Structure formats: C-alpha cells, structure tokens
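User: Predict the structure for this protein chain, please.
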Amino acid sequence: VEGYREKKRLQLIKLAEDTAERVLSEGSGARIEHLNSAERRIVHLTLQENDDVATYSEGEGEGRFLIVEPS
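Assistant: Here is the predicted structure, written as structure tokens:
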C-alpha cells in the first residue's frame, strides 16, 4: 500500500547492513528482536553473501530473534 512493502524491505536491508558493520567494528554478536519470519528472512538473505558475518535465528514462536555475529 503506497510502497509500504518496498520501504519496509529497504529498512530491513539497511538494518542488516548497519548491524553487520557494528558487529564487525565491535567484534561481538548482536541480537535483532521483534521481526516476523519474513523480515528475518530478508536480513538473512541480505547478509548471506557477507563472509565476515554469520546469521541464525534462535527462540520459538513470538520470542524468536535473529543473531548476527562475526564469522
């Protein structure tokens, strides 16, 4: 609706890239919460080609979250 999905996708890509940059500069992992499965997938796919970081999800149901950490 009025480009909402595309704006949200671009926000998630920026979140993924910013988080990867922060993880690499700090040298420790980061946790991203409050994403639904489709949003987590966008973050995973965005960082898939980045060999310097790894992503995975933990938790169950509404409490599921995404971890980004240095490889």
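The beta strands are 30-32, 53-58, 65-70.
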